[in-house]
Amino acid sequence: MGQSRYCSWHFFRACKILNKKQLSNLPPEVKDDVIKRLEMIEFKKKYESMSKEERRQFMKERRKKLKGRENVSEQFEDQDLVRTGKAKLVPILYVVFI
Known about the structure:
Number of domains: 2
Low-confidence stretches: none
Number of strands: 0
Order of helices and strands: HHHHH
Shape: extended
Mean pLDDT: 78
Largest sheet: none
Radius of gyration: 22 Å
């Protein structure tokens, strides 16, 4: 996959001024990327404005939320297949001389 014409820094900068309705009207191939990027920028600003103690408490709560997620195995599909017994065995390859 090549780099999209929407992946430039200027495009993300322009998307910062859009409201929620305008963001929802973005082309589907870039909408998720733009929204994730804007959320990341907001998170960085929020995190940088916190004191050390607030950061420590915030990260403690964040780690707790991540541990408590139900579908952690979705990130690792192959491990989930092995746990549920749906994984198939890989065929054994034999050397053949012609």
